[in-house]
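Private note to self, pasted from the team thread so I don't lose it. Backbone tokens:
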């Protein structure tokens, strides 16, 4: 499915952490939700996890006559994982199933219809020192050979605010891009709110553009 924004799950002291957000680029707009939960323990303890993600949105593609048309997309995954505390951080690995539906009526396009398959996801987050932390993940799905990798370096301005750069790459059977941007995160009374944005450089013949993402993570 198209990338809606940075999808990494942040540390949490509870047993379940959930998120929802909205992603926008010059060719895509969509919303996403997800959660990760531990089995009878805290999320930051070593052990097994259950993770689920869902996304719905619309992206634009160019037709043969030169006009742009819109394609609705829906997708979800469900994965079993394991989290291990390593040094000042946590490494999590997940594997499970996924599906994606692209409502494209063009029979000549590669990405169309509904397809299911397997998905793997690996994530690391942790502290480099008292002022900096890092969050990175990579994922691959056999559904349309979709991959994504992203990383953030965060500087803690104070106990409530973290800022820093981010970079990511995304691709499938017909499209690839790289993204360069920055983010700011606020610790609020209702959750962890992140605003990010930057530049999209397609590695396929599509116009360069932008991305903006609004993300809320919270404990359940």
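Design output:
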């Amino acid at each position: 499915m198209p990338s809606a924004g940075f999808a990494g799950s942040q540390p949490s002291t509870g047993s379940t952490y959930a998120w929802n957000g909205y992603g926008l680029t010059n060719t895509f707009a969509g919303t996403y939700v997800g959660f990760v939960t531990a089995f009878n323990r805290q999320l930051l303890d070593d052990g097994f996890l259950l993770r689920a993600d869902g996304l719905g949105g619309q992206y634009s593609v160019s037709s043969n006559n030169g006009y742009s048309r819109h394609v609705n997309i829906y997708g979800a995954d469900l994965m079993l994982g394991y989290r291990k505390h390593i040094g000042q951080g946590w490494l999590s690995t997940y594997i499970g199933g996924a599906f994606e539906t692209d409502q494209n009526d063009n029979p000549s396009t590669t990405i169309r219809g509904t397809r299911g398959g397997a998905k793997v996801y690996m994530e690391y987050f942790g502290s480099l020192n008292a002022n900096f932390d890092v969050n990175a993940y990579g994922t691959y799905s056999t559904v349309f050979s979709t991959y994504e990798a992203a990383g953030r370096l965060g500087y803690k301005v104070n106990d409530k605010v973290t800022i820093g750069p981010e970079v990511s790459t995304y691709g499938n059977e017909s499209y690839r891009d790289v993204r360069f941007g920055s983010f700011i995160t606020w610790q609020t009374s209702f959750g962890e709110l992140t605003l990010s944005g930057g530049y999209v450089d397609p590695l396929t013949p599509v116009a360069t553009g932008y991305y903006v993402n609004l993300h809320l993570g919270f404990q359940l």
